[in-house]
Write a structure and sequence with these properties.
Blueprint lengths: L3 E4 L14 H22 L6 E7 L1 H4 L5 H19 L5 E5 L2 E2 L8 H9 L5 E2 H13 L9 E2 L8
Parallel strand pairs: 1-2, 2-3, 3-6, 4-5
Helix pairs in contact: 1-3
Amino acid sequence: EIDGVFHLAGLIKDKMISKMTKQDIEDVIKPKVEGCNILHQVTLQMKLRFFVTFSSISALVGNPSQANYAAANCYLDRFCYQRRKLGLPGLSVNVGAVGGTGMIQNDYILAKSMMSNGFSFIHYHQLFENISKELFNSHRISKRCHLSLWVFKGN
């Protein structure tokens, strides 16, 4: 038996929407959407304490050339909302730029673009510390759907 699920799958293929192919959209949506659905189905009969999906700030504010990625993350946000309506745990974490690991680690152009638009980075250690505090030190987890960590900055 397990206490909960963390769904962190993701892929980016940045392009202007007018240049995106059907394959570009499917490639980005599939890991998040299908992964979430599979985890939901596999754990549906389990008494989970938490079901956490890692969404993105792009679902809230959008990023240039990331319509496919924003759509995939909006799905995760809404999916967790629907889980909550069913009385199941569901937390969608709208993560911003994560330093030290992740998709942006080796994408200098994306990192520069985000910083020029006022976004700062959260180090992955701080990200997981914040999530840990929220999940394990709070009885409110069952009443929440979103936890937007993009506003947190390291100490």
